[in-house]
Protein backbone atom coordinates (compact mmCIF):
# COMPACT_ATOMS: atom_id res chain seq x y z
CA UNK A 1 0.00 0.00 0.00
CA UNK A 2 1.46 3.39 -1.02
CA UNK A 3 2.61 5.91 1.56
CA UNK A 4 1.31 9.36 0.70
CA UNK A 5 3.50 12.32 1.66
CA UNK A 6 2.56 15.99 1.21
CA UNK A 7 5.49 18.43 0.98
CA UNK A 8 4.16 21.62 2.53
CA UNK A 9 5.15 24.98 3.97
CA UNK A 10 3.06 28.05 3.20
CA UNK A 11 6.25 30.11 3.14
CA UNK A 12 7.33 30.65 -0.47
CA UNK A 13 10.63 29.56 -1.98
CA UNK A 14 11.78 27.24 0.82
CA UNK A 15 12.46 24.24 -1.43
CA UNK A 16 9.10 22.41 -1.54
CA UNK A 17 9.24 21.74 -5.27
CA UNK A 18 12.97 20.97 -5.31
CA UNK A 19 12.38 18.47 -2.50
CA UNK A 20 9.28 16.95 -4.12
CA UNK A 21 10.97 16.44 -7.51
CA UNK A 22 14.21 15.06 -6.17
CA UNK A 23 12.80 12.95 -3.36
CA UNK A 24 10.33 11.40 -5.82
CA UNK A 25 13.07 10.77 -8.40
CA UNK A 26 15.55 9.37 -5.85
CA UNK A 27 12.90 7.03 -4.41
CA UNK A 28 12.19 5.89 -7.99
CA UNK A 29 15.90 5.35 -8.63
CA UNK A 30 15.99 3.13 -5.54
CA UNK A 31 13.40 0.90 -7.15
CA UNK A 32 10.29 2.31 -5.49
CA UNK A 33 7.24 2.92 -7.65
CA UNK A 34 6.39 6.59 -7.23
CA UNK A 35 3.59 8.97 -8.23
CA UNK A 36 4.48 12.69 -8.04
CA UNK A 37 1.47 15.02 -7.87
CA UNK A 38 1.78 18.72 -8.75
CA UNK A 39 -0.74 20.64 -6.63
CA UNK A 40 1.01 23.97 -7.21
CA UNK A 41 -0.44 26.06 -10.07
CA UNK A 42 3.06 27.43 -10.74
CA UNK A 43 3.77 24.03 -12.30
CA UNK A 44 7.45 23.83 -11.45
CA UNK A 45 7.28 20.15 -10.52
CA UNK A 46 5.59 19.42 -13.85
CA UNK A 47 8.23 21.21 -15.92
CA UNK A 48 11.07 20.13 -13.62
CA UNK A 49 10.24 16.53 -14.48
CA UNK A 50 10.30 17.27 -18.18
CA UNK A 51 6.58 17.69 -18.91
CA UNK A 52 5.71 20.80 -20.94
CA UNK A 53 3.11 22.47 -18.70
CA UNK A 54 1.75 24.61 -21.56
CA UNK A 55 0.78 21.59 -23.62
CA UNK A 56 -0.82 19.54 -20.84
CA UNK A 57 -4.41 18.82 -21.89
CA UNK A 58 -5.65 16.97 -18.83
CA UNK A 59 -4.17 18.10 -15.56
CA UNK A 60 -4.87 18.00 -11.85
CA UNK A 61 -7.19 20.97 -12.45
CA UNK A 62 -9.61 18.92 -14.58
CA UNK A 63 -9.40 16.19 -11.94
CA UNK A 64 -10.18 18.56 -9.06
CA UNK A 65 -13.19 20.08 -10.80
CA UNK A 66 -14.49 16.60 -11.63
CA UNK A 67 -14.15 16.67 -15.41
CA UNK A 68 -11.84 13.68 -15.73
CA UNK A 69 -10.95 10.42 -14.05
CA UNK A 70 -7.57 10.05 -12.30
CA UNK A 71 -6.39 7.46 -14.82
CA UNK A 72 -6.69 10.09 -17.56
CA UNK A 73 -4.32 12.53 -15.85
CA UNK A 74 -1.46 10.23 -14.89
CA UNK A 75 1.55 10.62 -17.18
CA UNK A 76 3.20 7.21 -17.04
CA UNK A 77 6.93 6.62 -16.62
CA UNK A 78 8.29 10.12 -17.20
CA UNK A 79 11.31 8.36 -15.74
CA UNK A 80 11.73 4.72 -14.79
CA UNK A 81 9.36 3.94 -11.86
CA UNK A 82 8.09 7.54 -11.80
CA UNK A 83 4.62 8.65 -12.91
CA UNK A 84 3.32 12.18 -12.51
CA UNK A 85 0.04 14.06 -12.38
CA UNK A 86 0.88 17.41 -13.99
CA UNK A 87 -0.70 20.73 -13.18
CA UNK A 88 -1.75 23.72 -15.24
CA UNK A 89 -2.05 27.40 -14.41
CA UNK A 90 -5.84 26.90 -14.46
CA UNK A 91 -5.46 25.20 -11.08
CA UNK A 92 -5.25 28.66 -9.49
CA UNK A 93 -8.97 29.03 -10.32
CA UNK A 94 -9.93 25.75 -8.66
CA UNK A 95 -10.44 27.41 -5.28
CA UNK A 96 -13.25 29.52 -6.73
CA UNK A 97 -14.76 26.68 -8.74
CA UNK A 98 -15.00 24.63 -5.55
CA UNK A 99 -17.17 27.16 -3.71
CA UNK A 100 -20.31 25.39 -2.56
CA UNK A 101 -19.12 21.95 -3.70
CA UNK A 102 -19.90 19.22 -1.12
CA UNK A 103 -16.92 17.43 0.47
CA UNK A 104 -14.46 19.56 -1.49
CA UNK A 105 -11.72 18.74 1.04
CA UNK A 106 -11.86 15.07 -0.06
CA UNK A 107 -11.66 15.40 -3.86
CA UNK A 108 -7.98 14.51 -4.19
CA UNK A 109 -8.22 11.74 -1.59
CA UNK A 110 -11.13 10.08 -3.37
CA UNK A 111 -9.14 10.16 -6.62
CA UNK A 112 -5.80 8.96 -5.19
CA UNK A 113 -7.59 6.16 -3.31
CA UNK A 114 -8.29 4.57 -6.69
CA UNK A 115 -4.61 4.25 -7.64
CA UNK A 116 -2.53 4.31 -4.45
CA UNK A 117 -2.17 0.51 -4.36
CA UNK A 118 -0.08 0.76 -7.53
CA UNK A 119 2.60 2.85 -5.80
CA UNK A 120 5.10 2.60 -2.94
CA UNK A 121 5.06 6.39 -2.53
CA UNK A 122 2.85 9.27 -3.61
CA UNK A 123 4.59 12.65 -3.21
CA UNK A 124 2.38 15.76 -3.37
CA UNK A 125 3.97 19.18 -3.97
CA UNK A 126 1.80 21.83 -2.26
CA UNK A 127 1.40 25.51 -3.19
CA UNK A 128 2.83 28.23 -0.90
CA UNK A 129 -0.47 28.85 0.91
CA UNK A 130 -2.81 27.17 3.37
CA UNK A 131 -5.48 27.05 0.68
CA UNK A 132 -8.09 24.43 -0.23
CA UNK A 133 -5.43 22.84 -2.46
CA UNK A 134 -3.12 22.33 0.52
CA UNK A 135 -6.06 21.10 2.63
CA UNK A 136 -6.87 18.57 -0.12
CA UNK A 137 -3.24 17.40 -0.09
CA UNK A 138 -3.23 17.05 3.71
CA UNK A 139 -6.56 15.24 3.70
CA UNK A 140 -5.07 12.75 1.23
CA UNK A 141 -1.68 12.31 2.91
CA UNK A 142 -0.43 9.95 5.60
CA UNK A 143 2.19 12.50 6.55
CA UNK A 144 3.72 15.88 5.83
CA UNK A 145 7.35 16.73 5.13
CA UNK A 146 8.14 20.37 5.92
CA UNK A 147 11.16 21.89 4.14
CA UNK A 148 12.76 24.70 6.13
CA UNK A 149 15.15 27.06 4.40
CA UNK A 150 18.30 27.86 6.40
CA UNK A 151 17.73 31.61 6.60
CA UNK A 152 16.46 34.23 9.05
CA UNK A 153 12.78 33.84 10.00
CA UNK A 154 12.94 30.12 9.17
CA UNK A 155 10.40 29.44 11.91
CA UNK A 156 8.01 32.16 10.74
CA UNK A 157 4.58 30.75 9.97
CA UNK A 158 5.57 27.30 11.17
CA UNK A 159 3.20 27.33 14.15
CA UNK A 160 0.37 28.15 11.72
CA UNK A 161 1.36 25.21 9.55
CA UNK A 162 1.52 22.86 12.54
CA UNK A 163 -1.89 24.15 13.70
CA UNK A 164 -3.33 23.48 10.23
CA UNK A 165 -1.98 19.92 10.30
CA UNK A 166 -3.62 19.44 13.72
CA UNK A 167 -6.95 20.82 12.47
CA UNK A 168 -6.90 18.53 9.43
CA UNK A 169 -5.99 15.60 11.69
CA UNK A 170 -8.90 16.38 14.06
CA UNK A 171 -11.54 17.03 11.46
CA UNK A 172 -10.66 15.42 8.14
CA UNK A 173 -7.86 12.86 8.33
CA UNK A 174 -7.09 11.23 11.68
CA UNK A 175 -3.97 9.43 10.40
CA UNK A 176 -2.13 12.61 9.39
CA UNK A 177 1.21 13.31 11.09
CA UNK A 178 4.23 15.48 10.51
CA UNK A 179 6.74 13.00 9.12
CA UNK A 180 9.64 15.36 9.55
CA UNK A 181 11.34 18.65 8.92
CA UNK A 182 14.12 18.86 6.34
CA UNK A 183 16.60 21.73 6.23
CA UNK A 184 17.24 23.08 2.74
CA UNK A 185 19.74 25.44 1.10
CA UNK A 186 22.28 24.96 3.90
CA UNK A 187 25.39 27.01 3.29
CA UNK A 188 28.33 25.58 5.20
CA UNK A 189 30.34 28.79 4.61
CA UNK A 190 28.05 30.88 6.79
CA UNK A 191 27.37 30.84 10.51
CA UNK A 192 23.78 31.74 9.77
CA UNK A 193 22.88 28.28 8.38
CA UNK A 194 24.33 26.60 11.46
CA UNK A 195 22.52 29.01 13.79
CA UNK A 196 19.20 28.40 12.03
CA UNK A 197 19.59 24.62 12.32
CA UNK A 198 20.41 24.89 16.04
CA UNK A 199 17.61 27.35 16.71
CA UNK A 200 15.03 25.19 14.95
CA UNK A 201 16.26 22.05 16.75
CA UNK A 202 15.91 23.87 20.09
CA UNK A 203 12.44 25.19 19.36
CA UNK A 204 10.67 22.53 17.37
CA UNK A 205 9.23 19.36 18.83
CA UNK A 206 9.10 17.57 15.46
CA UNK A 207 11.19 14.86 13.86
CA UNK A 208 14.11 16.36 11.99
CA UNK A 209 15.81 14.47 9.16
CA UNK A 210 19.52 13.82 9.67
CA UNK A 211 20.07 14.68 6.01
CA UNK A 212 20.55 18.40 5.43
CA UNK A 213 20.17 19.62 1.86
CA UNK A 214 23.05 21.95 0.93
CA UNK A 215 22.77 25.01 -1.25
CA UNK A 216 23.98 23.56 -4.54
CA UNK A 217 23.90 25.32 -7.89
CA UNK A 218 23.27 22.03 -9.72
CA UNK A 219 19.93 21.72 -7.86
CA UNK A 220 18.94 25.16 -9.14
CA UNK A 221 20.03 24.35 -12.72
CA UNK A 222 18.46 20.90 -13.10
CA UNK A 223 14.81 22.02 -13.59
CA UNK A 224 15.69 24.04 -16.70
CA UNK A 225 16.77 20.74 -18.28
CA UNK A 226 13.57 19.03 -17.13
CA UNK A 227 15.63 16.59 -15.07
CA UNK A 228 15.83 15.65 -11.40
CA UNK A 229 19.24 16.02 -9.81
CA UNK A 230 20.04 12.28 -9.83
CA UNK A 231 19.80 12.34 -13.64
CA UNK A 232 21.22 15.83 -14.23
CA UNK A 233 24.33 15.47 -12.06
CA UNK A 234 24.36 12.28 -10.01
CA UNK A 235 27.74 13.09 -8.44
CA UNK A 236 26.73 16.52 -7.14
CA UNK A 237 26.31 17.18 -3.42
CA UNK A 238 22.65 17.93 -4.17
CA UNK A 239 22.10 14.47 -5.68
CA UNK A 240 23.95 12.75 -2.85
CA UNK A 241 21.88 14.54 -0.23
CA UNK A 242 18.50 13.78 -1.84
CA UNK A 243 19.54 10.12 -2.24
CA UNK A 244 20.29 10.06 1.50
CA UNK A 245 16.96 11.73 2.26
CA UNK A 246 15.23 9.04 0.18
CA UNK A 247 17.00 6.38 2.29
CA UNK A 248 15.75 8.03 5.48
CA UNK A 249 12.19 8.22 4.15
CA UNK A 250 12.34 4.52 3.19
CA UNK A 251 13.76 3.62 6.63
CA UNK A 252 10.92 5.44 8.42
CA UNK A 253 8.44 3.59 6.27
CA UNK A 254 9.85 0.17 7.19
N1 LIG B 1 19.33 23.27 -2.20
C1 LIG B 1 19.23 24.23 -3.11
N2 LIG B 1 20.32 24.79 -3.64
C2 LIG B 1 20.24 25.79 -4.55
N3 LIG B 1 19.08 26.30 -5.00
C3 LIG B 1 17.94 25.78 -4.50
C4 LIG B 1 17.94 24.71 -3.56
N4 LIG B 1 16.65 24.39 -3.24
C5 LIG B 1 15.89 25.23 -3.96
N5 LIG B 1 16.64 26.05 -4.73
C6 LIG B 1 16.17 27.12 -5.62
O1 LIG B 1 15.43 28.03 -4.82
C7 LIG B 1 14.26 28.45 -5.49
C8 LIG B 1 13.01 28.08 -4.69
O2 LIG B 1 12.95 26.65 -4.57
P1 LIG B 1 11.60 25.85 -4.77
O3 LIG B 1 10.90 26.29 -6.03
O4 LIG B 1 11.91 24.42 -4.62
O5 LIG B 1 10.79 26.38 -3.51
P2 LIG B 1 9.21 26.27 -3.24
O6 LIG B 1 9.06 26.27 -1.75
O7 LIG B 1 8.63 25.13 -3.98
O8 LIG B 1 8.68 27.61 -3.89
P3 LIG B 1 7.15 28.11 -3.99
O9 LIG B 1 6.78 28.49 -2.60
O10 LIG B 1 7.21 29.26 -4.94
O11 LIG B 1 6.34 26.95 -4.51
C9 LIG B 1 14.30 27.79 -6.86
O12 LIG B 1 14.88 28.68 -7.78
C10 LIG B 1 15.20 26.58 -6.65
O13 LIG B 1 15.88 26.19 -7.84
From TrEMBL:
<dbReference type="InterPro" id="IPR025669">
    <property type="entry name" value="AAA_dom"/>
</dbReference>
<dbReference type="GO" id="GO:0016787">
    <property type="term" value="F:hydrolase activity"/>
</dbReference>
<dbReference type="InterPro" id="IPR027417">
    <property type="entry name" value="P-loop_NTPase"/>
</dbReference>
<dbReference type="Pfam" id="PF13614">
    <property type="entry name" value="AAA_31"/>
</dbReference>
<comment type="subunit">
    <text>Dimerizes in the presence of ATP but not ADP; ATP-binding is required for double-stranded (ds)DNA-binding. Interacts with DnaA.</text>
</comment>
<feature type="domain" description="AAA">
    <location>
        <begin position="3"/>
        <end position="178"/>
    </location>
</feature>
<dbReference type="InterPro" id="IPR050678">
    <property type="entry name" value="DNA_Partitioning_ATPase"/>
</dbReference>
<comment type="similarity">
    <text>Belongs to the ParA family.</text>
</comment>
<keyword id="KW-0378">Hydrolase</keyword>
<protein>
    <recommendedName>
        <fullName>Sporulation initiation inhibitor protein Soj</fullName>
    </recommendedName>
</protein>
Amino acid sequence: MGRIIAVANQKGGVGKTTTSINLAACLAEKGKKVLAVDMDPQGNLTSGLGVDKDSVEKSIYELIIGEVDIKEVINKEVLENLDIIPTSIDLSAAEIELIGVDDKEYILRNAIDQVKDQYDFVIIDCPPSLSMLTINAMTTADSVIVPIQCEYYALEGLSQLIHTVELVKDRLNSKLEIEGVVFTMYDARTNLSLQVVENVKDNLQQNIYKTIIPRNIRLAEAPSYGLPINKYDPKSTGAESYMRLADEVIEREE
